[in-house]
Amino acid sequence: MWGAFAITYKLACPLAQQNSLGARIVSSAVFFAVGTGLVLHVRRALLRELRQVREVAGATQNVLLRPLPPRLEGLALAAERLSASRGASVGGDLYEVTATDHGVRVVMGDVRGHGLDAIGTAAAVLGSFREAAHEEPELPLVLRRLERALGRHLTERSRADQPATGVAAPDDALLAEEFVTVLLLEISEEGEISALNCGHPWPHLLSGQARPLTDGEPLPPLGTLPLPAELPVLHCGPLLPGEALILHTDGMEDERNAAGAYFPLRSALTEAARTQPVSPQGLVRAVHARLVRHAGRLPSDDAALLVLRNDRARVPVQEPEPGCAIRPAMELSGRRRDEWRR
Question: Which pTM does this prediction carry?
């Protein structure tokens, strides 16, 4: 329409055929107006398309990283992620919490890199977890299901990258291409925490102050080496009422500021927990806000944070050994709590 108007003016308007200064000024003004109208029209079209893309991205996020319920089986939940890609809603970080017949099961993972390929890999791992968490009675079986799902996904993607032959790349090339760190947790009805870790940062236990849940040695990330024949589950003790578990991806701890200093995640968690009672949603927002202030920009890597607070009334009473007495869990703290754990 704008082009037709300009051509019609040039061919049909007598003023456009004149060479006087006034005629040239008028013609210039007409073509300037036409150009401005065309630019504004294109801008509106691009903004409309951008809104549609963001709507699709939001729908994708809700399918891939479904919003967690505020409470699940007596646990208060909150999770949020910051994307390293400007304007992106999803990336290579993944998490899920689900209630099963075997307890509340949690997965937190991080795909190497970010972007569309990372989203596809995260979707494959999450889809497998959402089925296996309900079907498999033991955590090692869940982890093996995730390994097989990742292998299938990488093989299919390799075939798609070789349309001429339709043959997947050699296994070594797949292993070098992509891997996923995965942390699996299971919280029983009694509050006992069991864990399997493939190259992922250990969570923090927040009880007055933040400290690592364990210092156990993790397995290699999924996709780098086959899982060993034996997968020993690490038993990390109870999550007592009022305590919280903080799961995160390495984008939280690896972020640096302009001076090159790493983000002090543990002190940020401890400081955010000073406001009692600890709100999972408030803690997530406070830590992410401090991360952005520390970096002075968007994070250089995707960063996710997941908080689970035990709001159950009590940990069931344990059977004491002969000659020993067990005090209620709510009365224990500090050194006495560690003694109770042992």
Answer: 0.72
Give the pLDDT of residue 32.
74
Same structural domain, 158 and 90: yes
Residue of higher predicted confidence among 106 and 214: 106
Average pLDDT (147-171) is 72
Q: Judge whether 253 and 204 are in contact, CB under 8 Å.
A: no
Domain co-membership, 275 together with 302: yes
| C-alpha dihedral (274, 275, 278, 283), degrees to nearest 10 | -80
Taking residue 64's Cβ as centre, other Cβ atoms within 10 Å add up to 18
> DSSP string covering 61-127, please?
HHHHSPPPPSEETTEEEEEEEE-SSTT-S--SEEEEEEEETTEEEEEEEEESS-SHHHHHHHHHHHH
Beta bridge partners of 99: 104
DSSP element (H, E) containing 12: helix 2-12
Residue closest to 284 by CA, chosen among 14, 84, 78, 112:
78
Beta-strand relationship, 303-310 and 75-82: antiparallel
The least confident of 189-193, 254-258, 272-276 is 272-276
Indicate which CATH number applies to the domain containing 254.
Answer: 3.60.40.10
Count other Cβ atoms within 10 Å, centred on residue 276: 7
59 found inside a domain: no
Q: Are residues 27 and 102 in the same domain?
A: no
Q: How confident is the model at residue 38 (pLDDT cuts 50, 70, 90)?
A: confident
Rounded to 10 deg, the angle between the 2-12 and 21-64 helix axes is: 170
**Sign of torsion over alpha carbons 100, 106, 112, 115:** positive
Higher-pLDDT residue of 321, 161? 161
Q: Is the dihedral of CA 272, 273, 279, 283 positive or negative?
A: positive
Range of the domain at 18: 2-52
Q: What total number of domains does the chain contain?
A: 2
pLDDT at 33: 76
**b vs e for 288-317, b when ≥16 Cβ sit within 10 Å of the residue's Cβ?**
bebbeebbeeebebbbbbbbbbbebeebee
pLDDT of residue 5: 66
pLDDT at 107 over 50: yes
